Amino acid sequence: MALPKPETVTGTASPTADDTEAPAPRLRADARRNEGALLEAAKVVFARSGVDAPIREIATQAGVGLGTLYRRFPTRADLVAAVFRREVDACADAAQTLAAGQGPAEALAEWLMLYTRFLATKQGLAAALHSGDPAFAALPDYFRSRFEPALSKLLHAATDAGEVRADVAPYDLLRAIGNLAVATGEDGAAHVERMVMLLLDGLRYGAAIGK
Q1: How far is the CA of 158 from the CAs of 109, 131, 166, 186, 202, in angstroms?
Q2: Confidence (pLDDT) at 181
């Protein structure tokens, strides 16, 4: 259906570029609080009951009504994607905090373990990402665009300090840990952490023999 032509108002100046391209208003403070509460509640509920948990359970956990939830996240996929992005951001941003407070090798090791735990607790979300829902289409690229630069800075700092080997690409390391993180069973998480520690030992050993 064609859009209606704009009406001509006699005696009114034409809108300027600033008028027509004004940015959308920011969320009100209460709306931001509600969004944060919903995302935190969804994180807790998804971890406890899976991504197919009742939406009402999330709204109750957040202390808001269903209408508030649906206004911000019209579909379950929208909510799942938003939770995933928020968790990716928190993990990626931790790299800078660790780098500022610890030595290069220690910061790298701690962040890799944090990333490992991130993967271990996001198995349900990861499964949803492969459902084919278009709401998730951009998430794999978002995942890499946030994690690869974060790890790259930590890895290069440790390499420059001579504390880890210099021939490992950040994305290869992310993929290696991702492959390890699929381990299941009662000792799955402990097994993954042991294997990541072996990877870290290999990074340090490579630097040692190169000196």
Answers
A1: 10, 38, 9, 34, 14
A2: 81
**Predicted local confidence at residue 1, as pLDDT:** 39
Residue 151 burial (CB < 10 Å; 0-12/13-18/19+)? Answer: buried
Q: CA 118 → CA 58, 83, 168, 193, distances in Å?
A: 21, 13, 21, 12
Q: Are residues 207 and 123 in the same domain?
A: yes
pTM exceeding the 0.90 threshold for the entire prediction: no
Residues 144 and 166: beta-carbon distance below 8 Å: no
Residue range of the domain that includes 70: 29-74
Tell me which residue has tokens 């800078």.
96
In a domain, residue 209? The reply is yes
Neighbours of 203 (CB within 10 A): 23
